Amino acid sequence: MGDRVYQGIRDRRGLPEVYVIENLRRRTLKEQLFLYRPIEFDWGYPGEDAMNLSITLLADALEGGDDPLVDELKDRLHDELVSMLPAAGWQINQWQLLDWVYGRSQRIPVYQLPLDELGGGVEQSVN
Fold first, then answer.
1. Is the pTM of this model over 0.85?
2. Which residues does 113 contact at the CB level (< 8 Å), separation at least 6?
């Protein structure tokens, strides 16, 4: 646990997508959903889509959607991180998110991803 990287990007139309990179494989975060209803993700402002991302990030990082920490921390993660993520793109390491969850860190470092030379989307590399 702890070697995942979460990456939020916007496609050329500006639509948000969140990827999980682990063991040199990439999947969408929505593949791990524990909620049984269609949801959308977004970030960079407060709202329902940002809250959906907060819940799903926590559930995936903790590797269990029914973990009581998800419900306990979703509002705080939304307010302190997800609603303020860079609009263009970002990257967060799972271990840093877990350090925040378990109180070993006061903040979650966010890496802003640069726009590519075509003006849409972000680089897909992992640091």
1. no
2. 7, 9, 86, 88, 89, 90, 91, 122, 123
